[in-house]
Amino acid sequence: MMQAPRRPSPPTSTLADNGILARVPGQYVGLAQASLPDAALVADEEIRVEVDAGWLGRVRLTFRKYRYTRPKGKFSATAWSCRHAEPVKALACSQEPASTTS
């Protein structure tokens, strides 16, 4: 009796390491991706963009460059893929009025 070879399961760190990306509405991810430069022309492998994501508030999205090819390798291209999202903490700068002493 032959058994099918076991496929390795994907590492859990990559699956759980996307932050709050699942909660960010797709329209905001799409707008952020449209604002990025052409992936083939940029030397960086990763770009971070901050956007206002509606009810979620300000969010920092991390896009990574990936390369894909068509079957038989006749065509290849480079594109951006959103891999991580995290909320941007607002700086709590308390500006108290200067007290005047006389």
Question: What does the secondary structure layout of this molecule look like, with pairings?
Answer:
Layout: H1 12-16, H2 26-34, E1 46-52, E2 58-69, E3 76-87
Antiparallel strand pairs: 1-2, 2-3
- Number of DSSP strand runs: 3
Distance between the termini: 96 Å
Q: In what range is the share of β-strand residues?
A: 25-35%
The whole-number mean of residue pLDDT values reads: 80
* Global Rg: 21 Å
Principal-axis shape: elongated
What is the succession of H and E elements? HHEEE
Walk me through what this model shows.
With 102 residues, the chain is an alpha+beta fold. The protein has helices spanning 12-16, 26-34, and strands spanning 46-52, 58-69, 76-87. A three-stranded antiparallel sheet has the order 1-2-3. The radius of gyration is 21 Å and the shape is elongated.
